[in-house]
């Protein structure tokens, strides 16, 4: 898969530009094997797991290869590092040069909804490995909460919906939220310090709606935040702002389907119900083939529901900033 390849290349880059170069590693005299089993005895599986984690932290290579390296070198960490690097050279894992400047491409999208306010945030890190770390997820949570507090402090416009974006530097300056000191920038620095990877507070979007509007949402690859029940984390997120004249019971379901469509079909604008139906390459949302039933357009799906789509926001983790805003 593409993601795997990117991670793979990245790990190589890490290794290659790391403090110990191939030469210095290879010049070191081999250590006697099994020295790491000294000290308090752990069960065989626990200690080999620790070794594996350590080797992976040291080198950044994949679990599979680190495991193979440890097996080949009888559990000797130093030898395993050397073996990994030799393999990397031999098998040409060095396609990484073109990845420079793609430092923080992984990470998570966070979606937080409270009453009539919805926020979508993106925080980036260098590897998918770190994005699955609880401390990284807590950072995403702080960013979502900070954005929510900022948004709730804004004056409401009661007649229509409002939507806004925050860029990286604006996010950095926001207070971190109810239970943390300082700004989001301080939280970012703490997380970078703890996890040892570069990270970016990439962007945030917020939407506030008065009655008569509804914000549908969807997060792809969703997982619940560890400690905030209404925060959802994933790799893609969408908000779809709808206007509806009647109180409908299935709005949540329709909103989720609209969000799925936006994530899957990546429209660039809403368009109008009068537009001609478009094909696969269509970028106007209402004219696109409906993701869940391509025999009709999204407009044909949504119109009989008594709901009109007025706007949307789509975040894809790691995408270029220029594609972030609609229109
Ligand atoms: C972020 O937004 C602020 C306010 O709109 C602007 O002054 C600043 O230049 C932006 N920063 C970046 C890095 O785009
Ligand atoms: C971290 O990432 C940011 C944004 O991509 C970049 O501007 C900065 O130089 C990076 N810092 C380091 C230490 O690589
Ligand atoms: C959002 O809800 C709050 C509390 O229910 C209300 O005071 C506020 O006016 C609402 N905002 C908008 C934009 O309707």
UniProtKB/TrEMBL annotation:
Domain Translation elongation factor EFTs/EF1B dimerisation: 119-270
GO cellular component: intracellular organelle lumen; mitochondrion
Signal sequence residues: 1-21
One Pfam family this sequence matches: EF_TS
Keywords attached to this entry: Elongation factor, Mitochondrion, Protein biosynthesis, Signal
GO MF entries: translation elongation factor activity
PANTHER family on file: ELONGATION FACTOR TS (PTHR11741), ELONGATION FACTOR TS, MITOCHONDRIAL (PTHR11741:SF0)
Free-text function comment from the UniProt entry: Associates with the EF-Tu.GDP complex and induces the exchange of GDP to GTP. It remains bound to the aminoacyl-tRNA.EF-Tu.GTP complex up to the GTP hydrolysis stage on the ribosome.
Annotated protein name in UniProt: Elongation factor Ts, mitochondrial
Organism: Macaca nemestrina
């Amino acid at each position: 898969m593409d993601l795997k390849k990117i991670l793979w290349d990245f790990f190589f880059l890490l290794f290659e530009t790391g403090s110990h170069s191939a030469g210095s590693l290879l010049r070191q005299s081999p250590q006697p094997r099994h020295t790491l089993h000294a000290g308090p005895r752990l069960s065989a599986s626990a200690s080999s797991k620790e070794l594996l984690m350590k080797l992976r932290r040291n080198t950044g290579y994949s679990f599979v290869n680190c495991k193979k390296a440890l097996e080949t070198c009888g559990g000797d960490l130093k030898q395993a590092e050397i073996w990994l690097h030799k393999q990397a050279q031999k098998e040409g894992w060095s396609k990484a040069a073109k990845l420079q400047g793609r430092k923080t491409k992984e990470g998570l999208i966070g979606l937080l909804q409270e009453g009539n306010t919805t926020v979508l945030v993106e925080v980036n890190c260098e590897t998918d490995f770190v994005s699955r770390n609880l401390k990284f997820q807590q950072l995403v949570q702080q960013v979502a909460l900070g954005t929510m507090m900022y948004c709730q402090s804004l004056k409401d416009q009661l007649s229509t919906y409002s939507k806004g974006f925050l860029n990286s530097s604006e996010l950095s300056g926001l207070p971190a939220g109810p239970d943390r000191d300082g700004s989001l920038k301080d939280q970012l620095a703490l997380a970078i310090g703890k996890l040892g990877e570069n990270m970016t507070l990439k962007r945030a979007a917020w939407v506030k709606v008065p009655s008569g509007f509804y914000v549908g949402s969807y997060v792809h690859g969703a997982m619940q935040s560890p400690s905030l029940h209404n925060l959802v984390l994933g790799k893609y997120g969408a908000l779809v702002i709808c206007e509806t004249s009647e109180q409908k019971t299935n709005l949540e379901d329709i909103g989720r389907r609209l969000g799925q469509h936006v994530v899957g079909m990546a429209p660039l604008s809403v368009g109008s119900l009068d537009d001609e139906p478009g094909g696969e390459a269509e970028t106007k949302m209402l004219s696109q083939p409906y993701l869940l039933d391509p025999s009709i357009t999204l407009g044909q799906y949504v119109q009989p529901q008594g709901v009109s789509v007025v706007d949307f926001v789509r975040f894809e983790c790691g995408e270029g900033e220029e594609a972030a805003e609609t229109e």
